[in-house]
Amino acid sequence: GMSGAAHQILAADPNLSVFVTANAGSGKTTTLVSRVARLLLGGAGASAILCVTYTKAAAAEMQARLFETLGKWAVMDDAALSAELAKLDASDPAGLNPARLSEARRLFARALETPGGLKIQTIHAFCEKLLRRFPLEAGVSPGFRVMDDAASAASADAARKAVARHAFKGEGLVAGAY
To answer: Which residues does residue 121 pair with via DSSP β-bridges, in sequence order?
Structure first.
């Protein structure tokens, strides 16, 4: 079998379509950051990359880790940077030419200068953006609003109370189920 590191290098290969599922703390964020870094190193524009996470905390963590990685690259000496880049795809650090190192050092500035920044967002934000862009196709009102947590809790509470009131009348299947 492959080692965990070998699996991470494979999963971070932007030429492959992969689905990563793993326990907390097992390196998913590190793998995704490596994947984005490899895309950027391969010449992809930061604005052409979209990362989707489940939570806002995960999105913030990923953004922070990516900028930390690119920021470190910007100030590393040649030997250290060659070693870091070689670790991304298990290549030979000696095979990296000075132009490749310069390009890696410029990625931080390029990412910072990207209008709207690198797109790392939650699945919810991504879906909301799609619905706003194509409301008619999605069958939603073009001016829809997303409920905040308080409104959502109030709506759920009102629904529970309505079911309870109906059940306490003592009639039919709802009363029996309640």
So the answer is: 52
DSSP assignment of 102-143: HHHHHHHHHHHHSTT-SEEEEHHHHHHHHHHHSHHHHT--TT
Global pTM value: 0.73
CA distances from 170 to 112, 118, 176, 177 (A): 63, 57, 8, 11
**Residue 178, pLDDT score:** 79
Give the residue ranges of DSSP H helices in the chain.
4-11, 28-41, 56-75, 78-89, 98-113, 123-133, 135-138, 149-168, 172-177
Burial class (CB in 10 A: 0-12, 13-18, 19+), 8: buried
- 78-89 and 28-41 are packed helices; what angle lies between their axes, rounded to 10 degrees? 110
